[in-house]
Please model this.
Amino acid sequence: MRKLIICILIFMFFAVRFWFNAPSEKINVYDHKHNKVIKMDFERYIMNVLAAEMPASFEKEALKAQAVAARTYTAQKIASEWDDPYHKGADICTDSTHCQAYRELAELGENAKKIHSAVDETAGEVALWNGELIRAVFHSASHGYTERSADVWVEDLPYLQSMASPWDSACPDYIYEVNFSADEVCALLNIDNPVIEQITRSGAGGVMSITIGRKEFKGTEVRSKLNLRSTCFTVTEKDGILTFCTEGYGHGVGLSQWGAQGMAKEGYDYKEILRHYYSGITIKKEKYSYLH
Ligand SMILES: [Zn+2]
Model:
């Protein structure tokens, strides 16, 4: 009888262990570099994204915050039944300009373990607002305040508001200058003269619109056409050279990676970091229902 009880206890121990360590669901990833679709473990895909999107040298809590953001971003895209012909039938792709960046863990050497455990320790966790998966956008560094989604894109999402992010100046090339000749600016923006008439800024400081050469552009448009690091820029002119000076790096909406790093260094944990950048969210372990 005692032997039977011991056997049952051992069985239960392994059953519980298996349940908690059970592999997650699979997803199909379109590998844009090799033009093929790969089926892989969902959590493994998140590791590959984390390896590419944030330096493995960052603090563990910053990596965990980024892991939850990347998982939520992916889950929300899949759940919204976003079907893009670019993916060739897959759920998501490896193109950083389309979905999220992707890197093999083997390229990281010893640091791969850190990425692995940041994803493992947050396995299945996603950010929700009002019970719905959020659009967990992220960027490298804001310009001291993150931008409201409505000021950069069109939609005003309640969890993507402007938040203070004083840690971001630690980002390399936080302030960055780039020079253009007047002719270059005219050619890139398709205007006749580069005289700036008006600049409208968001509350956070980014350029929302700019009238240059009697033509009005969105800040995001100028950023893209001139390949600027952010929409938070000033322009000065001297001897026919226009200097665009930017602060921060990226679109400035949602989680700031350098902000996450700064908060982690000050002792905040990943949930506190996520709740700071995504207002009013809850973080919950979900059973991958969004994959079906
Ligand atoms: Zn894609």
Q: What stands out?
A: Residues 24 and 42 are 6 Å apart (CA to CA). The pocket of zinc ion is lined by residues 86-87, 92-93, 95, 98-99 (CB under 6 Å). The first strand starts at residue 26 and ends at 31.
